[in-house]
């Protein structure tokens, strides 16, 4: 196969794959890629393909594996947005290697109460940080560096006294969706929101049963 045939084959295959991601903008991209390819050759095509793929992957992973229907924002923008919209901040800290964090993601995607959870998120400035994004300030590890840790903060970045009732030891450990929802509702009340009545009822037996599952979560303390 000649260099020109190889160039065409790569461009064609890449077009079919990337059109799924980029839609209407891909035609313009391929025209530019074809012109650049004639000038700079196949190495530049491969470089641009790799760059485009990495950019698409980075954008796709902006939610760190949590729900894409949630309006996640960068931590650096959270305070300004909280002040502007008069909302509390939902700050979730996780690790990619953490079993409890992966279980939380699974629960978030499969819990039947997900629509209620998504509605609650609209009342918060939603932030989730993973791995090296975790703040170094000890303020965000008041009772250990286990994960996941969930903090509710006001617009001045003061941590609200909203604590998990999951195991009685880790105040900011909210491993299941309904624990997060309970915390979110408490945070909203603390922030001054008036919440409508909810039909979510958690019996003591359910809470006690799930409390015994704590040994299934590997927390780094």
From TrEMBL:
Keywords: Membrane, Signal, Transmembrane, Transmembrane helix. The chain crosses the membrane at residues 36-58. InterPro entries: AGR/TXD (IPR051099), Thioredoxin-like_sf (IPR036249). The keyword Phosphoprotein does not apply. The keyword Aminoacyl-tRNA synthetase does not apply. It holds the Pfam family Thioredoxin_7. SUPFAM superfamilies: Thioredoxin-like. GO terms for cellular component: endoplasmic reticulum. This is Thioredoxin domain-containing protein. It comes from Acrobeloides nanus. The lineage of its organism: Eukaryota, Metazoa, Ecdysozoa, Nematoda, Chromadorea.
